[in-house]
């Protein structure tokens, strides 16, 4: 695992976008970051312009035409071909005879401290002219020199700066939380309000506190319940900022809110220059009159789609996104998105999740999550929507939206839709899944990659497998010696390259789970605090993403109460064996049914029902080879039914093909 930046604020989740083989990151706190895929660390996107004008050069005999020449310089990244805005120009007067003008870095030109900058570009006009031409480049290193020694007739045959890169419009990107690549430009939008405890002084512009963003200049700050807000003029450090006007309230410690006065403003870069911005011109406000907050951007169907929490629109343009050409097209339906990461494009179709549920985006939104909406209402912690995200698994062709359940702090659950069968389900992950994306693996196969709350990433497995284990790692391990909560010796030989760091280990004897921090060939070291109780010697530990959990949608029946004959589970034949628990729920309850079993009851082979238990135990034997497992339902009648499968002792990969209830009458048979 490689750390590209260790200074990222994690108060809110950020978003990524890629363009020109570079990855960009924004979180509305840190400066926008860029990684070129090669460097050891990420860098701030864009290049700051020189703050010092060139000084008068040294001169000697040469070819520069007589007259007044404007001379300036700018910084240049020759790897990306991106440039900064120019410095202030100086007038260099060539009189009496033509000259050669020498500019030396550190003497006449100020070097950039930005590690991305490796060159300085010198620009000049012809005598008495206003159009700049590129004279040449010099290394961004002290004592290196460039000589301007061409006549105007030669200079004006060279690179015209306005035509080559544009004179201006090369500022670093402003502050925002959402990024999107579209039509050769990088677009940015979205803001988040931040709360801080600060100290303000009456009649003073100085404000102190902690965890200030260095990029907050231009934002507004409001103290407590006061009605007046103040513009932030500058931020000196993470603990000190300056107001544009003196504070008129009383001196003391206060709770302050920092916010943007233009929360729905869209910014964009120059075309083909994703690190060149001009926020004063390359910008426009969106979702006007909607009383909404911008939450998502996506390039789709030749337009830039814009999503608020409960509204959406499209920006259509050919070359200029601005008001002169760009057309805003409202989308009917009052649908939006929870956040940027809850937008999923799969096989040419765009899907979104908002407070009403999941839907297909189009000229008219199409709601698709009705079978699971009630379940999500009971499960989802809507106060943590910033942590939700979605991904398409192209191997199993499943859409997955990860969410944080009530009472939890990370997304352990995913609402899943199978594109081929249209079946909804809930999936559970022992690790909190905090990020997801679709990427090609080493062989070029496109797969879903998941990032967990422990700092590890995993490819979502082919054909339903996702255990987080190296291929040569054992799925079960037997403890030996004197295990502790964090250091455990096992009898099996463990892989060390790659090792098992980040993998989940479960002790089914006491239903406890821990995560591996590192391992040798015989010893596991767990992430502290490890297991709540140290496992005993001789206990079997199960490694990988278990327990496997599948939760069906609610099956609703009309008319009188109906009791299903049995629960039908269909697995891929021989995909797995081991034990699985089956829980039955009725009438929208979150509590599984208590089962009844008489001493004379006879159940199918492999099905065990204990009277008074809340689950049945079944053998995953593939249903005598055909994969169908009929599970009886020893509980009362009801109109609404749901099932949950939990497998904590698997052998092999579980590949669930179908689950449903088989009923007495033909009119309600085989609801799946």
Description:
The chain is mainly beta. The chain has five domains: 1-46 and 172-191 and 262-334, 6 Propeller (Neuraminidase), CATH 2.120.10; 58-164, no CATH class; 194-259; 476-544; 554-668, no CATH class. The chain has four helices and 53 strands. Strands 32, 33, 34, 35, 45, 46, 48, 49, 50 and 52 form a ten-stranded antiparallel beta sheet that branches. A hairpin with a 2-residue loop joins β28 (344-346) and β29. It is elongated, with a radius of gyration of 32 Å. Residues 462-466 and 665-672 have low confidence and may be disordered.
Q: Label the CATH architecture of the largest domain.
A: 6 Propeller
CATH class categorisation of the largest domain: Mainly Beta
CATH topology of the largest domain: Neuraminidase
| Average residue pLDDT | 89
Class from secondary-structure proportions: mainly beta
Largest sheet: 10 strands, antiparallel
Query: Could you tell me the strand content as a percent range?
Result: 35-45%
Task: List the defining traits of the structure above.
Neuraminidase, 4 helices, disordered C terminus, mainly beta, 6-stranded antiparallel barrel, 672 residues
Question: How would you sum up this structure in a few lines?
Answer:
This protein is mainly beta and 672 residues long. 3% of the residues lie in helices and 43% in strands. Mean pLDDT is 89; it is low at 462-466 and 665-672.
Write the layout of secondary structure elements.
Elements: E1 15-19, E2 22-26, E3 33-35, E4 43-44, E5 58-64, E6 67-77, E7 82-83, E8 90-94, E9 99-104, E10 119-125, E11 132-139, E12 145-148, H1 152-155, H2 161-164, E13 178-182, E14 185-189, E15 194-200, E16 206-208, E17 220-223, E18 229-237, E19 240-243, E20 252-259, E21 265-270, E22 273-277, E23 283-285, E24 296-300, E25 303-307, E26 312-316, E27 327-331, E28 344-346, E29 349-354, E30 357-360, E31 366-367, H3 370-379, E32 389-393, E33 398-404, E34 411-418, E35 424-428, E36 433-440, E37 446-452, E38 457-459, E39 476-480, E40 487-490, E41 504-507, E42 512-519, E43 523-526, E44 540-543, E45 548-552, E46 555-556, E47 566-571, E48 576-586, E49 607-609, E50 616-619, H4 623-627, E51 628-632, E52 640-652, E53 656-662
Antiparallel strand pairs: 1-2, 2-3, 3-4, 5-9, 6-7, 6-8, 6-10, 9-12, 10-11, 13-14, 14-21, 15-16, 15-20, 16-19, 17-18, 17-20, 18-19, 21-22, 21-23, 24-25, 25-26, 26-27, 28-29, 29-30, 30-31, 32-33, 33-34, 34-35, 35-45, 36-37, 37-38, 39-40, 39-44, 40-43, 41-42, 41-44, 42-43, 45-52, 46-52, 47-51, ...
């Amino acid at each position: 695992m490689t750390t590209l930046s260790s200074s990222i604020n994690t108060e809110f989740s950020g978003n990524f976008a890629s363009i020109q083989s570079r990855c960009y990151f924004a979180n509305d706190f840190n400066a926008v970051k860029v990684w070129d895929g090669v460097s050891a660390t990420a860098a701030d996107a864009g290049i700051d312009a020189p703050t010092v004008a060139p000084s008068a050069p040294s001169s000697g005999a040469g070819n520069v035409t007589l007259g007044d020449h404007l001379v300036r310089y700018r910084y240049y990244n020759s790897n990306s071909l991106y440039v900064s805005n120019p410095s202030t120009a100086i007038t260099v007067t060539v009189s009496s005879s033509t000259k050669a003008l020498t500019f030396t870095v550190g003497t006449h030109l100020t070097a950039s401290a930005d590690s991305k900058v490796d060159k300085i570009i010198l620009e000049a006009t012809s005598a008495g002219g206003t159009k700049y031409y590129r004279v040449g480049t010099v290394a961004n290193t002290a004592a290196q020199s460039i000589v301007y020694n061409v006549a105007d007739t030669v200079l004006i045959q060279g690179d015209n700066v306005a035509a080559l890169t544009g004179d201006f419009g090369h500022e670093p990107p402003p502050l925002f939380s959402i990024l999107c690549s579209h039509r050769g430009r990088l677009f940015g939008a979205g803001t988040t309000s931040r709360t801080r405890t600060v100290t303000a002084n009456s009649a003073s512009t100085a404000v102190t506190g902690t965890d200030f963003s260095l990029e907050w200049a231009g934002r507004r700050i409001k103290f407590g319940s006061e009605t007046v807000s103040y513009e932030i003029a500058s931020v000196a450090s993470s603990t000190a900022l300056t107001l544009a006007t003196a504070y008129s309230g009383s001196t003391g410690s206060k709770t302050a809110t920092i916010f943007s006065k233009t929360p729905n403003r869209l910014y964009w870069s120059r075309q083909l220059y994703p690190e060149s911005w001009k926020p004063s011109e390359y910008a426009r406000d969106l979702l006007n009159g909607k009383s909404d907050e911008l939450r998502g951007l996506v390039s789709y169907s030749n337009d830039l789609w814009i999503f608020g929490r409960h509204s959406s629109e499209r920006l259509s343009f050919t070359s200029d996104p601005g008001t002169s050409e760009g057309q805003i097209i409202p989308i009917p339906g009052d649908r939006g998105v929870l956040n940027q990461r809850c937008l999923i494009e799969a096989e040419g179709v765009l899907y979104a999740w908002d407070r009403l549920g999941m839907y297909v985006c189009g000229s008219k939104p199409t709601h698709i999550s009705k079978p699971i909406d009630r379940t999500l209402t009971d499960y989802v912690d809507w106060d943590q929507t910033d942590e939700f995200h979605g991904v398409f698994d192209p191997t199993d062709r499943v859409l997955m939206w990860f969410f944080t359940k009530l009472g939890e702090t990370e997304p352990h659950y995913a609402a899943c839709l199978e594109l081929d069968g249209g079946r909804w389900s809930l999936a559970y992950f022992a690790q909190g899944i905090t990020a997801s994306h679709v990427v090609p693996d080493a062989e070029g196969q496109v797969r879903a990659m998941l990032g967990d709350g422990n700092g590890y990433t995993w490819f979502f497995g082919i054909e339903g497998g996702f255990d987080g284990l190296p291929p040569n790692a054992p799925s079960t391990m037997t403890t030996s010696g004197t295990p502790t909560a964090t250091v455990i010796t096992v009898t099996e030989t463990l892989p060390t390259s790659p090792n098992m760091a980040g993998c989940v280990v479960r002790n089914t004897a006491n239903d406890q789970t821990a995560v591996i921090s590192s391992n040798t060939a015989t010893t596991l070291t767990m992430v502290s605090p490890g297991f709540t109780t140290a496992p005993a010697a001789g206990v079997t530990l199960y490694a990988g993403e278990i327990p496997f959990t599948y939760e069906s949608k609610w099956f609703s029946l009309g008319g009188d109460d109906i009791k299903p004959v049995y629960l039908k589970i269909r697995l891929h034949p021989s995909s797995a064996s081991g034990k699985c628990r089956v829980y039955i729920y009725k009438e929208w309850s979150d509590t599984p049914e208590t089962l009844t079993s008489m001493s004379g009851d006879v159940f199918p082979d492999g099905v065990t029902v204990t009277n008074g238990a809340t689950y049945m135990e079944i053998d995953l034997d593939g249903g005598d080879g055909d994969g169908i497992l009929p599970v009886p339902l020893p509980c009362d009648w009801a109109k609404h039914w749901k099932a949950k499968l939990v497998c904590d002792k698997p052998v092999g990969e579980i590949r669930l093909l179908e689950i449903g209830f088989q009923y007495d009458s033909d009119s309600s048979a085989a609801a799946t």
